[in-house]
Automatic annotation (TrEMBL):
Residue segments, region Disordered: 64-85
KW Transmembrane helix (keyword) present: no
Pfam families from the UniProt entry: GDPD, Phytase-like
Domain GP-PDE: 425-750
CC per GO annotation: periplasmic space
CDD domains in the cross-refs: GDPD_ScGlpQ1_like
Catalyses which reaction(s): a sn-glycero-3-phosphodiester + H2O = an alcohol + sn-glycerol 3-phosphate + H(+)
One GO molecular-function entry: glycerophosphodiester phosphodiesterase activity
Protein's name according to its UniProt entry: glycerophosphodiester phosphodiesterase
Source species of the chain: Promicromonospora thailandica
InterPro entries: GP_PDE_dom, Phytase-like_dom, PLC-like_Pdiesterase_TIM-brl
Enzyme Commission (EC) number: 3.1.4.46
SUPFAM superfamilies: PLC-like phosphodiesterases
Family classification: Belongs to the glycerophosphoryl diester phosphodiesterase family.
Length: 751
């Protein structure tokens, strides 16, 4: 981005104070900070933002505010069933800082739908978090509820019936509006974004609706009270204005999900609304989510044209993949016309150096994460500190402790700019963190990133319509639930792949849309039964989605996350008219990764396609080498050379003419003796280095059956052994990097 994040954040106070819409920004919550270092425009290639937990406070999920009973129609969950004798506070969907240690915190419509929320009153609560900072004498860690503003239509502004239609106060309920976002004006009034319309609502400081709702110009949702019979809706149910930022005279409401008529299901629109004129300006900006199912959870202005956005998925607990805060600049767009985004914090990986609330639930330990389903609050409380929080969807969410409703959380996150470091060893998440999540899913890749992998590895195959997707093989019966789909039963067939018959279902017989109806499954359920808990959750990702995830992420050392794609069966795919090389290069180019300095290494077991890629792209290339057999393209051409020939001195010199490194099966580098223990290292690492090639090895796995005998923990083949010990032997032999199903253990060995 043209202006560095750090220097933009330093201007938040000034920009907000100058705004006519927003209140002046605050003094520091966590104490005064020194003036930030100024930087020249441009990214910080040598620095990154490191996040650490500075404080946390919670409100019991079972807390009841004063008011009539609520939840008579709410779905029971986690041992709780309504009605409850008071007003439930089901988390906070939006928040405003009062700059005195208190906040106005706004829940949504209550229990998720019109039909079950008629007894839930729409409110904003004045709250004071007593921050537990992990230091002696810090606060209790509780959120204190001080006061309440009740939203109402006592001026009879609305021209449709509401639940409390015949009453004096005309209190608004969750059956009338689904309020989600909140901006306070300089005059103390509140602008609220909601989802049933979707509408923009303008309330007085006392909660009274001041004017008629402003309708969304580009469509209606199924909950809109003005729907005509048979009218087609364009906004998904509960996919309206979940997020809204305010800057100057303008509001920037963001549509949570994709519009129904949008061909790009990853596009989310940001609109501009002029509060002086009371109308939309006609300007809008496109934001692209990391994957189709992701939604926008909140927004917060950091300058006239910049804002924070929460991007999240709908998973919780250990299933969560995306709970992120990005900063965008409306004045900067990428090659595809989307606003550029830069990662501020991945809330699934926040350092917790003082051990705040460690051990009290999932995501509470040396690393803090916010793995809740509905991560829906973000704002700056000072130039270096974010406040994040959740909507807990009471009583349904149980991300922290299974079977117990999630509390409402507020957390302070300190952001510190640090220098990127490099330990000199390349750790590659093999098919992601496939030892912990089903391989080749965004969940596996995100887990690998959070476990400190430097690169993530997608194996690349093609769909029938020429889209590259990540699967270990083009035959997908072992990695998806395709066999459970009767509509695809007729596509089961036998093909010859690299000279061998293979029976099953193949990606090249499916369009991307058809493939999207499938879900990933664990490939080795007998070895990793714990991974089967994630079966049926995740889609097959496209290469574009994997590249987006990587380029929008940072390693534990602060460097951009690299991508290490492998072209699978390129000779076969050429034979069916679905060449892999050109689409691969196009995707790299579209993502700004087709250059020598890009954190990309393309690998293949074949030789010819690497030579072709050497002519098509400047990214680094790696020749894969097995301990037996030969590259299939050489076999098909009648070339007698084997993998053993490729790793001779002359063979390695030849590889150096078109590639930058080799990825060798680990037995090629250190063979095993007859008793299963590691023998003496071969000459391959030394000879490859002399030829100017890097050497990476595959594949390091923690289970005993994959380990040398001296590193096994028992005779149980599936029990974890000493993977760290094995990797260190290879590193001592001069290995430059390695592929591992267990990147966390690989990072430990490399460190």
């Amino acid at each position: 981005m043209s202006t560095p994040l750090r220097s933009r954040l330093a201007r938040v106070v000034a920009a907000t104070a100058a705004a006519s819409l927003l209140l002046p920004a605050a003094a520091a919550v966590a104490g005064p900070r020194p003036a930030p270092e100024q930087h020249a425009p441009g990214k910080h290639p040598g620095t990154y933002l490191a996040a650490s937990l500075a404080g946390r406070a919670t409100l019991s999920a079972d807390f009841l505010a004063d008011g009539p009973p609520s939840g008579a129609q709410a779905s029971p969950a986690n041992g709780r069933q309504g009605p409850w004798d008071g007003q439930v506070i089901p988390g906070f969907s939006a928040m405003v800082d009062n700059h005195d240690g208190t906040f106005w915190a706004q829940p949504d419509n209550g229990f998720g739908a019109k039909g079950n929320s008629a007894d839930f009153l729409l409110r904003s609560y004045l709250v004071r978090p007593h921050w537990d900072t992990g230091r002696r004498g810090s606060g209790s860690g509780e959120i204190e509820v001080l006061d309440v503003v009740e939203y109402n239509d006592r001026n009879d502004v609305l021209d449709f019936d509401i639940v409390h239609e015949g009453t004096t106060d005309r209190l608004l309920t969750g059956a009338d509006f689904d309020i989600e976002s909140l901006v306070r004006a300089a005059d103390g009034t509140f602008w609220v974004g909601e989802e049933f319309g979707p509408f923009l609502l303008h309330f007085g400081a006392d909660g009274t609706l001041l004017e008629a709702p402003y309708e969304f110009p580009d469509g209606r949702s199924p909950g809109n009270p003005y729907l005509e019979p048979g009218e087609t809706t364009n906004v998904g149910s509960s996919r309206g204005f979940e997020a809204m930022a305010g800057s100057g005279r303008y509001l920037y409401p963001v549509v949570e999900g994709a519009l129904a008529d949008d061909a790009d299901a990853r596009r989310r629109w940001i609109y501009q609304f002029d509060t002086r004129r009371g109308e939309y300006t006609g300007r809008r900006w496109a934001y692209q989510t990391d994957q189709v199912a992701n939604v926008i959870g909140d927004a917060f202005a950091t300058g006239r044209d910049s804002m924070l956005l929460i991007e999240r998925d709908d998973f919780e607990g250990d299933q969560a993949v995306t709970k992120r805060v990005y900063e965008i600049d409306l004045g900067e767009r990428d090659r595809d016309g989307y606003v550029r985004k830069e990662l501020v914090v991945d809330t699934l990986r926040i350092d917790n150096p003082r051990g705040i609330d460690a051990g009290e639930g999932y995501g509470l330990g040396d690393t803090f994460s916010l793995p809740v389903q509905s991560f829906e609050t973000v704002l700056f409380v000072d130039e270096d500190t974010l406040l994040i929080g959740n909507d807990n969807n009471y009583p349904g969410n149980d991300a922290r402790v299974t079977g117990t409703p999630d509390d409402t959380e507020m957390a302070l996150v300190d952001l510190t700019r640090k220098r990127v470091t490099d330990d000199g060893v390349t750790v590659v998440g093999h098919r992601g963190a496939s030892g912990y999540r089903p391989e080749h899913t965004l969940a596996a890749y995100e887990t690998a990133i959070n476990q400190c992998a430097d690169y993530i590895e997608p194996d690349v195959v093609s769909t029938r319509d020429g889209v590259l997707v990540a699967r270990h093989e083009n035959e997908i019966s072992g990695t998806t639930d395709v066999a459970a789909h009767p509509e695809f039963a007729g596509r089961r067939t036998t093909k010859t792949i690299d000279g061998a018959p293979v029976t099953g279902w193949f990606t090249e017989d499916f369009t991307l849309a058809e493939l999207r109806t499938l879900r990933a499954t664990e490939r080795l359920p007998q070895v990793r039964p714990q991974n089967t808990a994630f079966d049926g959750l995740y889609q097959v990702p496209t290469l574009d989605e994997v590249l987006d995830l990587a380029r929008n992420s940072r390693t534990c050392d602060g460097a951009p996350v690299g991508v290490y794609p492998e072209t699978k069966h390129p000779t076969y795919f050429d034979s069916v008219g679905l060449s892999l090389e050109e689409p691969l290069v196009r995707e790299l180019r579209r993502n700004g990764l087709d250059h020598r300095q890009a954190p990309v290494i393309v690998q293949s077991f074949e030789v010819g396609n690497l030579r072709e890629l050497d002519r098509l792209t400047d990214v680094r290339l790696a020749q894969l080498v097995s301990s037996s057999g030969a590259p299939y393209d050489l076999v098909a051409d009648g070339d007698p050379r084997t993998y053993a020939d490729l790793v001779t001195r002359n063979g390695l010199r030849d590889i150096a003419r078109y590639a930058d490194g080799i990825g060798a099966e680990k037995n090629v580098l250190i063979p095993r003796d007859a008793d299963g223990t590691l023998g003496r290292p071969s000459q391959v690492i030394r000879d490859a280095h002399r030829a100017g090639l890097d050497v990476h090895a595959w594949t390091f796995r923690r289970e005993n059956q994959f380990l040398p005998a001296e590193f096994r923990s028992s005779s149980d083949p599936d029990e974890p052994g000493d993977l760290v010990g094995e990797i260190r032997v290879f590193l001592h032999a001069g290995l430059d990097g390695f592929f591992s199903d267990n990147p966390d253990l690989g990072a430990t060995a490399a460190g």
